[in-house]
What we know:
The chain is mainly beta.
Amino acid sequence: MKWTHAVLAVVGAAALWPAVGPAQGAAADEGRGAVHLLLNGAFDNRPGGLVDIDVQGVRGRGEVTVSSPVFPRRITLAPYQHRAPAPEHGHHARPAIAMSTKPGSYPLTVRAGGRVVAQDRVEVGPPRRPRFTVTSPGEVMRPGERLWMTYDDLFPGETGTAFEVRSPAFPAPVRLAHDPSGADWDNPRLFSGGLDLPASVKDGTYKVTLTGPGGREVDHKPLVVRAARPGDRDYVGRPRGPAFFGTSPASGPERARTHGHTVPVGGTVNVLWRDASPDPGEEGRLTATSPAFERPVPLKRDESKAGDGDSPRYYGPAHIRRGLGEGSYPVTVVSHHGRVRKIGQLVVTAAASPSEVSGSPLVTAVVGAGLAGLLGLTGVALAKSRTGRGRA
């Protein structure tokens, strides 16, 4: 963890620089009467790491310098270049600790116009072997989740500048690059990069390989991918179904039933599925299967206005196999990368017999209409017959 250490050194301008004019040397800011030293990286440093040094309250044209045994030479700080909203008078540098520095506590001295204006200490720890990081121990990644990887080789002798990461879980290699403006700006040898895992990546443990110049393998780590399941804290799916509704105009998704729906052998039934949070790309994979169906049924998104205000819903027509025996048959829908499996029961009845068809209201109406038509034709024929006899 990095800390910022602030030191306030109160100095008298006349006492420090009695013979130096503003055009010849630096002086304490007369308006504030103090010099402020801020060290970002005063603790938990490693050899080769950067120490951010900020000195405020010194003005003039003279040099502001910093010296410490951890630096190979005296460091000259650069004046601020209109760094709003920072104070007008300030100096800054970010030198690197010498790679040969041994662990310990070292003094740091700030001079302005050749005079000491502030002092502090820099703590340096031991070097650390290069480390490749993919995930924390025990961490599980989800399909579609952002994966961030780093390689920290702030260690004597390391000089690589180009690194790539490959894995069967990735659609393409990922380049790790150094970003000095990132969160680890104090580490000049931290390389990082990331990608969004494909939504279609399957559950499993994948090898993630770091390669250096010439494709040489530097290190590798395991990556565990497992999509969220019901009961997991981050699971957001709310699937409902399968439900069933008929194919007549009087039926529809709003009348779908999860239990007790019947369909005759050789008939057709619609299978309905609802989910408040379907997985990305799942709309092209939803399918209902059953031993009662002629073939698996793709479930398509209902784009009608009737679906407004309800969970996204999907349905498709299923044709019941001919020659099927009566009974209850399972209908299965699998979603969320195989994590959700729901089974409904569809009741298949025998095909309607001819006698049942003749006794149905529709057939009765047709037969009645046919008899009336026959009677009407008979009446017309009798009338014509009588008219012909009269004329004779």
